[in-house]
Write a structure and sequence with these properties.
By secondary structure, this protein is α+β, with helices and mostly antiparallel strands. The chain has one domain (34-115). The protein contains 2 helices and 5 strands; from the N terminus they run H-E-H-E-E-E-E.
């Protein structure tokens, strides 16, 4: 319909609220089986200014089969998408955030660390 906004996507706060409710109910013991990784700057179903490609399946497989929980997952944005340069960033388990180390390119995940907000 004319004049109606397109799908703005679900609010990330709803997912955060659910994650925090589980955390509260279980007293923080969900971390051995559930983690939340948000994709900053990514729209609903991809797109946006942030990196929207990540190998979540391999991270889950290592966690389930080898017992190695993901400390971070690297996400990328393809070169040229929307005229923007390639980009990679670590996706951090909530509530941690990716913080720039202060040196190197801000377009490269290796120059970021997951830290408490």
């Amino acid at each position: 319909m004319a004049g109606r906004p397109t799908d703005p996507g679900p609010a990330p706060e709803n997912t955060i609220n659910y994650y925090e409710a589980v955390n509260k109910t279980l007293g923080g013991k969900q971390d051995d089986w559930m983690r939340l990784f948000l994709l900053p700057g990514v729209g609903h179903c991809g797109g946006g200014v942030g990196p929207d490609q990540a190998d979540f399946l391999s991270a889950l497989e290592r966690w389930r089969e080898d017992g190695v929980a993901p400390a971070d997952i690297t996400a990328t944005r393809a070169p040229g998408r929307g005229g923007q340069p390639p980009l990679s960033r670590p996706l951090c388990p909530f509530p941690q955030v990716a913080r720039f180390t202060g040196s190197g390119s801000t377009d490269d995940a290796k120059n970021f660390r997951c830290v408490a907000p």
